[in-house]
């Protein structure tokens, strides 16, 4: 095998190219506003990577990723608001002071520590997904029932936050000034957040690729296609699904935590049913069964939404719906599936024609005189 065209070389070459684009070309070519916008899209791509594992490889239609995105986002936002209040010498964040409160609620107090906030971002979404998945998958809930349940969870979580004035209510939490001591109004720190988001995304893609290429990845596909046969072989499909679901929630929580300082706000509107479906649309358009399809689909759909909203504000929702219908109806494998189909056809064209080979074999051999 040629080392320059081997699978490992292509993988490392792909990661190197992505690193050059993210850490070299993008900061050099984009303005600060566009770079910050791309950092926001990278957060969406991070959620999409987890959905690609759970839905694309595991067959679990996760319509409630906004819940785990929101848990990570609110955990980070609570710490940032408390840290900003401490810098000002105030006992409570600004929105609580306006409401007349003079003391932090009990469940806010631990988030004054950055270590607690980071632990909550990493552990809480995964823990919630573990408990929810344990109850759902052990009862063999799947298909449309699982999708409806996860969507209902996202709706309930958003409604719960709207009624919690200590969490900002429908306005959410916003106006963050610092991020672990760094001034968020400084353009250099904004770029730092972009680099962090890019590095985390590359690490997440590497993690998911390792899972897909491992024995676990093969078992996950087997559970998706023939769950009863896998159970007959002695494996518990519920445990296999649970791992993918927890990993997807883990990545969504990290994405939410990065989203907060990058965008500067988190509210129930960012974590309900509509955002959860938007995550899914990007994955479907990009190609849910591939590694890079969800990433490119999420970034592409988010970029298209921004471009449409700037020039055609009322038309984006129709364009998004049309794209989803076209992909589901005519290209179920997504855009990445089209490239895979083209490669397969090219390989088939390059194969020798069996009929011609058979005729050639039957031709008499000419003996030289």
UniProtKB/TrEMBL annotation:
Domain of life where this protein originates: Bacteria
Keyword Cell membrane found: yes
First-listed, main subcellular location of the protein, grouped into a coarse class: membrane
Cellular component annotations (GO), alphabetically ordered: plasma membrane
GO function terms (MF aspect): branched-chain amino acid transmembrane transporter activity
NCBIfam families registered for this protein in UniProt: urea_trans_UrtC (TIGR03408)
Name recorded for this polypeptide: Urea ABC transporter permease subunit UrtC
């Amino acid at each position: 095998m040629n080392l320059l065209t081997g699978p490992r070389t292509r993988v490392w070459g792909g990661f190197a190219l992505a690193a050059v684009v993210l850490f070299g070309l993008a900061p050099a070519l984009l303005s600060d506003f566009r770079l910050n916008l791309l950092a926001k899209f990278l957060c969406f791509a991070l959620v999409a990577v987890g959905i690609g594992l759970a839905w694309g490889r595991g067959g679990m239609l996760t319509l409630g990723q906004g819940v785990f995105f929101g848990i990570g986002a609110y955990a980070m936002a609570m710490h940032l608001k408390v840290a900003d209040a401490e810098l000002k010498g105030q006992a409570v964040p600004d929105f609580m002071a306006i409401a007349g409160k003079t003391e932090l609620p009990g469940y806010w107090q631990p988030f004054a520590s950055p270590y607690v906030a980071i632990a909550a971002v990493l552990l809480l979404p995964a823990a919630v997904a573990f408990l929810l998945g344990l109850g759902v998958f052990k009862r063999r809930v799947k298909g449309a029932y699982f999708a409806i349940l996860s969507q209902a969870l996202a709706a309930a979580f958003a409604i719960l936050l709207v009624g919690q004035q200590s969490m900002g209510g429908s306005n959410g939490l916003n106006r963050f000034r610092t991020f672990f001591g760094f001034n968020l109004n400084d353009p250099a720190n904004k770029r730092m957040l972009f680099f962090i988001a890019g590095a985390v995304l590359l690490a997440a893609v590497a993690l998911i690729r390792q899972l897909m290429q491992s024995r676990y990845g093969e078992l996950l596909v087997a559970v998706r296609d023939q769950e009863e046969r896998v159970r007959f072989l002695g494996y518990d499909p519920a445990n296999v699904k649970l791992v993918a679901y927890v990993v997807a929630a883990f990545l969504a929580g990290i994405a939410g935590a990065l989203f907060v300082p990058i965008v500067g706000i988190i509210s129930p509107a960012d974590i309900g049913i509509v955002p959860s479906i938007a995550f899914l649309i990007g994955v479907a358009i990009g190609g849910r069964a591939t590694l890079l399809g969800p990433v490119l689909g999420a970034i592409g759909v988010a970029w298209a939404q921004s471009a449409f909203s700037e020039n055609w504000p009322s038309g984006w929702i129709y364009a998004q719906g049309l794209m989803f219908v076209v992909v589901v109806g005519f290209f179920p494998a997504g855009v990445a599936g089209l490239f895979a189909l083209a490669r397969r056809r090219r390989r088939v064209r390059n194969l020798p024609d069996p009929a011609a080979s058979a005729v050639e074999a039957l031709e008499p051999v000419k003996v030289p005189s």
